[in-house]
Amino acid sequence: MKPLLITVSLLSLMTAASFAQSDPPVEQPMATDSTMVASTPSITPPAPVSSLEAKDSPDDHGHSITLSWEPSADDGAGAATVTSYVIYHSTSPEGPFDSVGSAISGATTFTHSSAKESDAAGFLADYVDRYYRIDAVTADQTIRTPSSVVGPVQSSGQWYNDGRTPVAVAVAFFGLLSLFFLKRAKAGADLYVRPLGGIEAVDEAIGRATEMGKPILYVLGLGTASDISTIASFTILGRVAKRVAEYQTHLIVPCYDPIVMAVAQETVKAAYMDAGRPDDYKEDMVYFLTNSQFGYVGAVNGIMLRQLPATNVYMGKFYAESLLLAETGALAGSIQISGTDEVAQIPFFVVACDYTLIGEELYAASAYLGREPLLLGSLKAQDYAKAAVIICALLGALALNIAAASNATWGLTFKEFFKVTN
Amino acid sequence: MKRQIPLVLVLIFGLFMVIQYFIPHESSEWIYEYLLDWITIIGVFALVLGIWSLFKVNYDKISQRKPDRGYSLVLLISLFATMFFGFFAKVDGSWGLHFSTADGLQSYMYRHAYEYIIRPIQSTIFSLLAFFIASAAYRAFRARNVLASLLLAAALIVMLRFNPYLGPLGDYISEAANWLLNVPNLAAKRAIVIGIGLGMVATALKVILGIERSYMGKG
After folding, report:
1. Nearest to B53 among A164, A287, A292 (CB)
2. Which residues 177-196 of chain A have a CB within 8 Å of chain B?
3. Apex CA A364: angle with CA B133 and CA A246, to 5°?
């Protein structure tokens, strides 16, 4: 009994002592909105964020406000009690304020944005006055210190994207360069174009197919008619079809996309007419297969293995199917010519095909095949633009190195000039 | 006139698309999205053309008793069976053909045809890639000349970098592989990408100005 009494007495004393040491509990007022500011006596409320600014987000379609602030003095320093910031928004300076998001400690910006559809959740209408406040919050989420309210600020869409000025300058420069060389080409200037092995091999490959009495398979890839590489491929198809018509060989063009099929049919038909053999054009030369990637591969591989084309031409946009097609063609013993602007697929074509047009050569092929002055003019402009890119890259590297060595800031200005944002 | 109207349309819409890139305003985006909707609508109509082309080519093969017509027969039977099950569904307790709803896409046969026939076949074709990579690599890495030997050496280094049994040598190989990937390989890649970018702009310009007309069926 005695030990029990001693234990109870000690516990009572300890409880009394603990009450005596701590401040009396403060009853929190009931919140009228989500801006409740709670505090418990044991932790000092953190310092609020400072220099809070709210601005319309630049270079966007509207419905977005960007907030920036200086972190709380207790964020990573001082009492280091701030773990996050909660952002509040209202259309009136008096509130009520609603929480629209949060940012982790250390953050100094937040974008309050919405989808542009008026029925989207949390839709932010443009040209409406908005007010913001940020609470610095501690780990238990109950201790928080609000900042002062900033506003009014309105969101709106812009009519020019400043961040894309370098692109505008580059496009204007390249456009003017192209127009200059097109004019020169029209005036009859002699424009040299380096030989493209893959394109020069086309005639040889068609001749081989004619001698062997076997067809030529032309694959336009998985691109749509709006892909530039597919458009370039149409031009090459036109030239190939014309030569095929002249040699009276058979052409097979299985298509992945129905619109591409429609354009390819017109291209081949026009080529046969140009060759003076419109009657030789057959509708079953260009046909649709499927727009399932591997279904298409299965069908084209089947054609290769059953009909054993003398030549396979792959021009356009290719993905994982590139090696599946090219390797089957190689196993079938066909001469293979390929060209794509998909960088990841170029090595596959290089190892499995006899000739490969690498990247831009696909676009140059149409000019090379046609030898039309206007097309050659644009090719020349490309060469000069490439030279300009190389010069800019060298100057940029040099400038940044010199600036870094001399601790100068002009190097960064130079870098910023070429930077494309958003 | 037949040629002029498409060229004028391409010029107008091509220039609009170029300018639109620099205008983030909502109204500009709205027109852009509206035009993209047109592409989808045209695509749906073109699909009808595509299916007609597929049917006609294969029907002709069967009717003309061409060799390999068996494949065409399988294709046409599969095409019509899939279409039938895509429309045939049980709605409100009764089976029937439903052309105006998507109920058929949830039907047992349609889903099972996709899950247990089409998907495994597609996966099989994709997995063949591993074997094709091996056979292509064998051909590419034969040391026939100096360049091919360099390629072989580079490939060996890159392939060996994840080998866990190389001990301390593995660190050097890993470093060499990273250098190969991040310096010469990346430099070449970037050069190709810059060339492609310029080629694309040049081709787009040719299309907009009406110099390149291959998309009109005239190469």
Report:
1. A287
2. 178, 182
3. 90
Contact residues on chain B for A385, CB-CB shorter than 8 A: 198
Nearest to A60 among B24, B60, B205 (CB): B24
Q: Which CATH number fits domain A197-370: 3.30.310, 2.40.50, 3.40.50, 1.10.287?
A: 3.40.50
Size of interface A-B (CB pairs under 8 A): 215
pLDDT, averaged across chain B = 87
Closest to A65 measured CA to CA, from A167, A15, A144, A133: A133
pLDDT over threshold 50, residue A11: no
DSSP summary character for residue A24: P
ipTM greater than 0.90, yes or no? no
In this complex, do B49 and A258 lie within 8 Å of one another by their Cβ atoms?
yes
Give the CA radius of gyration of chain B.
27
Domains A32-153 and A197-370 share a fold: no
How does residue A93 score in pLDDT terms, banded at 50, 70 and 90?
Answer: confident
What pLDDT is attached to residue A303? 94
Evaluate whether A230 touches A258 at the Cβ level (below 8 Å). no
Q: What is the pTM of this model?
A: 0.80
Q: Which CATH number fits domain A32-153: 2.60.40.10, 3.40.50.10490, 3.40.50.300, 3.40.50.12780?
A: 2.60.40.10
